[in-house]
Amino acid sequence: MDQPRIAPATLIAADFEQIYQDDDHLLSHCRVENTTIPATPIVHPMLEQVYFKNVNFSGRTFERLELTDVIFDGCDFSNCHFEGASIFRTRFTGCKLIGVDLTKAVLNNVSFDQCRLDLAILCEMKWKVVNFTACALTDASIMQDHFTRVKFDHCQLDKVAFNQTKLKGVDLSSCSFDRLDLEAAMARGMTVNLYQAANLAAYFNGIHVK
């Protein structure tokens, strides 16, 4: 995975509201910390080489958001609307993304570490080299997505809906779930552990395992 090309210690502090004043809605080469983002919606905002720490985005709408070489540390994106986003070489660490809507987003070289994505809407997306580590995605919806080198490592995936999404090559064996919502044909080539296999057998075939 390509890491964000950014050195947070070298960046100067900035006010996020600068993006509203820029004709291209561009914010780049800066740090934004310990603040709440204004409720004003933005169409096609672009963030490049920006470090965010403890920033509250909750409930905000950014249509066609573009992120390149961005780091989010301890930020809150609960119930945000980022439909059609393009996210490239970006890292989310300890972030809250409960109920976030990323419909039709494109993710390329993106990592989520110790994040909450419960109830997230992750539909009609393209994922290329995306890692989830120690994340919670309970009740998330993943529908009509295309996966390329997607990893789930020690994640909570209970009641995730993998609908019309091929899981060939995806390894869920280190993850926790009692139930997944998925079609048998889409699960071919997926890796699970023995306990998970028993649960899936019961789900697909109505078998009761003691």
UniProtKB/TrEMBL annotation:
Gene3D superfamilies: E3 ubiquitin-protein ligase SopA. Pfam families: Pentapeptide, Pentapeptide_4. InterPro entries: 5peptide_repeat, PA_immunity-related. It comes from the Bacteria. This is Pentapeptide repeat-containing protein. It comes from Lactiplantibacillus plajomi.
